[in-house]
Write a structure and sequence with these properties.
Elements: E1 2-7, E2 16-21, E3 26-29, E4 33-35, E5 41-46, E6 67-70, E7 87-89, E8 94-97, E9 102-105, E10 112-118, E11 129-134, E12 138-140, E13 150-158, E14 175-181, H1 207-232
Parallel strand pairs: 8-14
Antiparallel strand pairs: 1-5, 2-3, 2-6, 4-5, 7-9, 9-12, 10-11, 10-13, 13-14
C-alpha cells in the first residue's frame, strides 16, 4: 500500500479527496481516505496491483492523476486537447513504396514527435522502429525494409522532456497509416545471341576423277584419229 497526504488549509471532517479519472472522464471519490486528526491534510491509501484490497485509484493509475480536496464534487478541469498530426507520406494504403522510405507528417510546432513502425497493426511485440524524440516532422528510415511487405506506422506529438516518454496530456493522439513496399526487382534477362549457320564446306573433287576425265579425253582423241586414218586408207 501507498499513502498519499494532500495538504491544504481549512480541512474539516467533511473534506473529501477526489481524483480525475481518465477512464470515465469525471471526478471520482477516493475509496480509502480520511482527514488527519490535526486538520493539516487528507490521507489517501492506494493498493498495488498485487494487493488483496482493491482501492480507487490503484497505484498503477497515478501517472498524471489530478487530485482535489473539496466539500462537494469539483467541476471538471479545463483540459486542453493534445495536438494531433496528419500523415503526409507514405500516403494511407499506398503501394510500391521504396524499401528506404521517407516518412513525413504535418508540422505542429511541438517540442518532439514520437514515431513507431511495425508489421503488426496493433504495434504489439518487437517494433521495426521506435524513435521517441524526433524534433523534425519527418523521419528517414536508415535501413532497408522487406520487399512486398505491408507496414504500419504512427506518429504523435510529445511535450515531454528529451529523456522521457510522454504521458497523459503530454501526448497527442496517434496518427496511423499503412503502406506496402515495392516488389523485388527482377534482374534483366540477357538476350540469346542469334544462331549462325555456317555455309556448307566447299566440295573437294578427288584427283582420280580428273585422271578419268583425262584418260577419257585421250581415248576420244585416239578414236577420232583412228577414224580419220581409216577413211584415208
Amino acid at each position: 500500500q501507498v499513502t498519499i497526504k494532500l495538504y491544504t488549509t481549512g480541512i474539516t471532517a467533511n473534506t473529501k479527496a477526489y481524483f480525475w479519472s481518465g477512464l470515465t472522464q469525471k471526478w471520482t471519490l477516493c475509496s480509502n481516505q480520511g482527514p488527519a486528526g490535526t486538520g493539516d491534510y487528507v490521507y489517501v491509501v492506494l493498493s498495488t496491483a498485487t494487493a488483496d484490497t482493491v482501492t480507487s485509484p490503484m497505484t498503477g493509475d497515478l501517472s498524471g492523476t489530478i487530485f482535489a480536496l473539496v466539500a462537494a464534487p469539483a467541476p471538471p478541469p479545463v483540459v486542453t486537447p493534445p495536438l494531433s498530426v496528419k500523415i503526409l507520406s507514405p500516403t494511407e494504403g499506398s503501394t510500391g513504396v521504396s524499401i528506404k522510405p521517407l516518412f513525413a507528417w504535418e508540422d505542429k510546432g511541438t517540442a518532439f514527435y514520437e514515431f513507431q513502425l511495425a508489421i503488426d497493426p496493433y504495434f504489439a511485440g518487437d517494433l521495426v522502429s521506435d524513435s521517441p524524440k524526433l524534433q523534425a516532422p519527418y523521419f528517414a528510415y536508415p535501413a532497408e525494409l522487406e520487399y512486398s511487405t505491408t507496414y504500419y506506422w504512427r506518429v504523435r506529438t510529445s511535450k515531454a522532456s528529451p529523456t522521457t516518454i510522454c504521458v497523459g496530456a503530454e501526448c497527442g493522439a496517434w496518427a496511423q497509416g499503412l503502406f506496402t513496399t515495392e516488389a523485388k526487382p527482377v534482374p534483366p534477362v540477357e538476350p540469346t545471341p542469334p544462331v549462325v549457320i555456317p555455309p556448307p564446306p566447299a566440295q573437294i573433287v578427288p584427283g582420280w576423277i580428273y585422271a578419268i576425265v583425262a584418260i577419257g579425253a585421250v581415248l576420244i582423241i585416239a578414236v577420232i584419229i583412228l577414224i580419220v586414218r581409216t577413211k584415208r586408207a
